[in-house]
Amino acid sequence: MSKHISKFLSLVLRHEPERIGISLDESGWTDVPALLAAAAAHGVSITRAQLAEVVAGSDKQRFALSPDGERIRANQGHSVDVDLKLEAVAPPATLYHGTVDKFIPSIRSAGLIKGARHHVHLSAETLTASKVGERRGKPVILRVRAEAMAAAGHVFFRSANGVWLTDAVPPEFLELPTVVAPVVPPGDRRNNVSRGAKVGIAKATLEVCERGDYVKPNGECVSIAAALEAARAGTEPHELGTALRPLPATKQTAISVTHESTIEAIVRLAPTGAHVACLNFASAKNPGGGFLGGAQAQEESLARSSGLYPCLLTQRGHYERNRDGSTPIYFDTAIWSPHVPFFRDDDGSWLVAPVLASVITCAAPNASALRQQQRFDAAVVEAALRKRAAFVLAIAAHRGVERLILGAWGAGVFGNDPAMVADAFGKLLEGDYKNVFVEVVFAVMGGPGGNNFDAFATRFT
């Protein structure tokens, strides 16, 4: 009954007082006796006790009674001409708005507009915004840069029930959800996202890293600030030849070849509670490879999905040295980034909760570039790759990694023979690094029938 009364009051106190023959003063107030009598005359029987209960019990405090209980009004949301006598208030840095997917294209173009209402309604926290969005379907939470709006001259008010109001929110002050591809089978997701969408995902990821949190579709705000700062602070360079403490060979290493991406493997292994790390099949010259331009390879996917890029930016000397080098074999250097927060899937959707995985960033020799320069020597390239593979495992052992995610490192655009890469790791895991790790997963895209997958499956079967 109270819900029915609440909806009736919203109609006549916000939008259509004339429907039951009452009038609102310039501030939206009407007399309670007149309201109750008019409601009864139109088939809606409301007692004073019921009215007081609805006003007091409304989860959003939609209505207000005067101190003497003789007048009532809606706190905001009017489409009729009223002046609530609200004073301008400085907003918090961020406010939120709940909506649904179908409105995103128009919001992206025009921003948030008030329509027939007096103001756009915003919330100070995500839970309220989520409840607003739920009225029309699965909620989508938009973040409003309110402080920046106020600095640009936009005026904000706050109603008696805590709703933030403003005339409009232009698109440039909105953080919109990234458009991502539909869910597809594991191992194939990243190939179903357009290049333009990948650019958008990358930009949104950088904003999350700068801000230190992200908002899930259910409205929950998830902080990554502390984890990312720790990862950045702990990021360090490594160079072949420096002393690395080996782990004792006391485990019984489980080795598997799986048809999944590195990120899928991270998400799968992180809940074990073990120290999980992955090898970043890195560009030697550019942190994150080409992820800001929508490029797609393993490093780009890692950078779009995590706080890895800010970590790599702390090691500019690593990239400058390789850019200044004279050969695409590159230097025997690597970057260690501990417990990096991963918060997206390959398709760009938010993880329910961030997971932590350390990252070893190390470039394989670029055989393709050597071929283009007519400088390719198979023996030299193989020797360099095998030496660098040992370097990667030495870093992982030194850092106490328990579950290590590897793959077809350098067998993509760098043009190395996947069978040779698989054998390089295989001999090491059968020799110096036998039973050093609890688990080693070769996450290889493409699945059975693909050259890379079959090469690793053959080597480790």
Explain what the structure shows.
The chain contains 16 helices and 20 strands. The strands form six sheets. A seven-stranded mixed beta sheet has the order 14-17-18-16-19-20-15, with helices on both faces. A three-stranded antiparallel beta sheet has the order 1-3-2. It has 461 residues and is α+β, with helices and mostly antiparallel strands. It has three domains: 2-74, RNA 2'-phosphotransferase, Tpt1/KptA family, N-terminal domain (Arc Repressor Mutant, subunit A, Orthogonal Bundle); 95-175, ADP-ribosylation fold (Alpha-Beta Barrel); 189-459, Leucine Aminopeptidase, subunit E, domain 1 (3-Layer(aba) Sandwich), CATH 3.40.220.10. 35% of the residues lie in helices and 20% in strands. Helix 1 (2-15) packs across helix 3, helix 14 (378-398) packs across helix 15 (418-430) and helix 15 packs parallel to helix 16 (451-459). It has helices spanning 2-15, 32-41, 48-57, 104-110, 126-134, 146-151, 195-211, 225-234, 262-269, 298-304, 308-312, 316-324, 367-372, 378-398, 418-430, 451-459, and strands at residues 30-31, 63-65, 71-74, 95-100, 112-113, 120-122, 139-144, 156-158, 164-166, 168-169, 174-175, 213-215, 221-223, 236-239, 254-258, 276-281, 333-344, 350-362, 403-406, 439-443.
Task: Please summarize the sheet with the most strands.
Answer: 7 strands, mixed
Q: Give Rg in angstroms.
A: 29 Å
In the CATH scheme, the class of the largest domain would be: Alpha Beta
Rounded to the nearest angstrom, the distance between the terminal CA atoms is: 67 Å
The level of helicity is 25-40%
The gross shape turns out to be elongated
* CATH topology heading of the largest domain: Leucine Aminopeptidase, subunit E, domain 1
Count of helix runs: 16
Mean pLDDT: 87
